[in-house]
Amino acid sequence: MDLAKTIGHYGFGHWIECWNNGNDTLTPACKAQRIHSDPGLFGYYPLVDRRNGYYMQIVMMHVVANTSNFGPTEASSSLRLKIKPTIDSIMNASQHS
To answer: Percent of the chain scored above 70 by pLDDT?
Structure first.
């Protein structure tokens, strides 16, 4: 798994998310999202959404036999992609009510 081509641009201990843009360039669209994360090897996925004003954590614990096993990282990343749009809707609705 090439994380830079999948997640986005890495800088100062975290990722500036730019999912599946096919390269590791930090595009203006990625900068505008203002989403910072740092998916971990064991499945932990902290995320700060600065544009929408909230943070979330996906906490999983998978023991891996070696550091080339990205299965837990892929699992938490997949979960993040599935749930974040729903969380965005909930958070935006609560901020406007």
So the answer is: 79
